[in-house]
């Protein structure tokens, strides 16, 4: 049935998004059908972009719709809109033009309109019908079945009524025919009768008819005594008797009753049928916060004490070699910038903590701030546990950016796991590595089996080894790892790095000395 009945068709056209709501309504009797207006993106000769709305969802008043947009723009809830104009008329129909700002992204503005206005709304389907005198919510197949049964009942009752009326009319016509066949006797009897009652009784006895037929004869006009009128009465009787036979046949044959239902439905289609107005489009998922945020490059700054922010890249201008730079984040005393990188607002940022857990956030989740602002502490964004500090931050577009993630602890344990093992959106974070007593996470890097890993200790010791599966086998997410480097007393792991042939290692000391060494050495 659902293959034929695709979904509701609303008089105001618009779009139905997805089939799930319709399927729910047709399968259970209840459902929420998501509707959208029709929006087109137009660009004028000046290069200004406008959104043109030509259809609204069913039952959405376009005046209230425009007022709602204007109020939300004024209150700052809708961004990127510079003007709205109602150009609707009888000639062009509905036409609402929304001008967007030059720096606004049309798709983002449309998604905001879907989320915050009635450009996208839901139609609650409740397929309620009276069945045997009781309200019931019906599936589509039940609704059709009960509708057909009701139409059959209507046909039976209608035919029964018509048959009764036809029999009554035929009965009178038979009496009139008898009167016309004995016209002279009838006229003589009526003229000789002193009262109507006497005449009626005389007709009943003369013609062998009942009181109803006798009264019809008395009520007959004189003009009907003409020969042509007599033939017309005989023809009417024959026609009604044929009609009676047909009506009795309908009542006796259910297949004829169903045929009448089909014919009447076909007549409705011929009289009122037209092309579908409401188009059904594939669902693209619910509009999420991510759909409302433009993809753009930002500079992410995270300090050693955990303050984070994102800043638009155009706030950092390019300078020549001798330039002195610009003022960056205003930091508290003894705080330094630990992580500084450029990424997309839609990139994922993985926060690895000293206690071996990993949290994730989208770049757009970080507070947007000016170049000199300090930002907000990540503990306000992520559910850090007490005493947790950031050990490493990694930016990825997705969990297929690299085959493996390698973690290293202060005591020299190293673990390689599949990056996809860390794909979790749990707000409380997940375990990245099981730490042993008196240990903490120091580093995290992405790598492939073709890379080499370099561990460097606080006292200047280092070790380089391959990241192949033979040298460092992959392990599960919640494991401790293997010993990657051993230390002398009072030494510890300082950093974990991915190195490749043809590159250099730069080592800097707290005293200001630095040394560059080829990786091959």
UniProtKB/TrEMBL annotation:
Catalytic activity of the protein: ATP-dependent breakage, passage and rejoining of double-stranded DNA
Domain Topo IIA-type catalytic: 1-292
InterPro entries with a match to the protein in the record: GyrA/parC_rep, Gyrase/topoIV_suA_C, Topo_IIA-like_dom_sf, Topo_IIA_A/C_ab, Topo_IIA_A_a_sf, Topo_IIA_dom_A, Type_II_DNA_Topoisomerases
Enzyme class at the top of the EC tree: isomerase
GO molecular function: ATP binding; DNA binding; DNA negative supercoiling activity
Coiled coil region boundaries: 230-257
EC number: 5.6.2.2
This protein's UniProt keywords: ATP-binding, Coiled coil, Cytoplasm, DNA-binding, Isomerase, Nucleotide-binding, Topoisomerase
GO biological process: DNA topological change
Any one GO CC term of the record: cytoplasm
Family annotation (Gene3D superfamilies): 3.30.1360.40, DNA gyrase/topoisomerase IV, subunit A, C-terminal, Topoisomerase II, domain 5, Topoisomerase, domain 3
PANTHER family named among the record's database cross-references: DNA GYRASE SUBUNIT A, CHLOROPLASTIC_MITOCHONDRIAL (PTHR43493:SF5), DNA GYRASE/TOPOISOMERASE SUBUNIT A (PTHR43493)
Homology family: Belongs to the type II topoisomerase GyrA/ParC subunit family.
Protein's recorded name: DNA topoisomerase (ATP-hydrolyzing)
Species of provenance: Mycobacterium tuberculosis
């Amino acid at each position: 049935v659902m293959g034929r009945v695709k979904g509701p068709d609303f008089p105001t056209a618009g779009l139905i998004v997805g089939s799930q709501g319709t399927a729910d309504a047709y399968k259970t009797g209840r459902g929420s059908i998501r509707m959208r207006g029709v929006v087109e993106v137009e660009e004028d000769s000046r290069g200004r972009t406008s959104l043109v709305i030509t259809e609204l969802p069913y039952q959405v008043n376009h005046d209230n719709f425009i007022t709602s947009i204007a109020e939300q723009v004024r209150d700052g809830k809708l961004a990127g809109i510079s003007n709205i104009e109602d150009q609707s008329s009888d000639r062009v129909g509905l036409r609402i033009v929304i001008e967007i700002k030059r720096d606004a992204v049309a798709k983002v503005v449309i998604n905001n309109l879907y989320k915050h206005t009635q450009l996208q709304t839901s139609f609650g389907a409740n397929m309620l019908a009276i069945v045997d005198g009781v309200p019931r919510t019906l599936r589509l197949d039940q609704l059709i079945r009960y509708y057909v049964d009701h139409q059959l009942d209507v046909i039976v009752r209608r035919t029964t009524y018509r048959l009764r009326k036809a029999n009554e009319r035929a009965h009178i016509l038979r009496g009139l025919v008898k009167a016309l066949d004995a016209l002279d006797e009838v006229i003589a009897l009526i003229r000789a009768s002193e009262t109507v009652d006497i005449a009626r009784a005389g007709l009943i006895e003369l013609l062998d008819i009942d009181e109803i037929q006798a009264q019809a004869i008395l009520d007959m006009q004189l003009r009907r005594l003409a020969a042509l009128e007599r033939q017309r009465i005989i023809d009417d009787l024959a026609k009604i008797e044929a009609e009676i036979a047909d009506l009795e046949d309908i009542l006796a044959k259910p297949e004829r009753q169903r045929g009448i239902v089909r014919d009447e439905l076909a007549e409705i289609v011929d009289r009122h049928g037209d092309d579908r107005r409401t188009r059904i489009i594939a669902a693209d998922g619910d509009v999420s916060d991510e759909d409302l945020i433009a993809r753009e490059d930002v500079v992410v700054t995270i300090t050693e004490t955990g303050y984070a922010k994102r800043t638009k890249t155009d706030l950092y201008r390019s300078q020549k070699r001798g330039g002195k730079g610009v003022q960056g984040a205003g930091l508290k005393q003894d705080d330094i910038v630990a992580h500084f990188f450029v990424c997309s607002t839609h990139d994922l940022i993985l926060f690895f903590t000293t206690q071996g857990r990993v949290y994730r956030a989208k770049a757009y989740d970080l507070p947007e701030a000016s170049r000199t602002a300090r930002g907000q502490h990540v503990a306000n964004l992520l559910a850090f546990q007490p005493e947790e500090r950031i050990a490493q931050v990694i930016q990825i577009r997705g969990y297929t950016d690299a085959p493996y993630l390698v973690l290293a602890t202060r005591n020299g344990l190293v673990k390689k796991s599949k990056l996809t093992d860390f794909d979790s959106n749990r707000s409380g974070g997940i375990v990245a590595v099981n730490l042993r007593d008196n240990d903490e996470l120091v580093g995290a890097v992405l790598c492939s089996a073709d890379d080499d890993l370099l561990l460097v200790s606080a006292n200047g010791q280092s070790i380089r080894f391959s990241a192949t599966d033979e040298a460092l086998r992959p392990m599960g997410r919640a494991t401790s790892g293997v010993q990657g480097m051993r230390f002398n007393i009072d030494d510890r792991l300082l950093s974990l790095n991915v190195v490749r042939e043809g590159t250099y290692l730069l080592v800097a000391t707290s005293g200001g000395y630095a040394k560059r060494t080829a990786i091959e050495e």
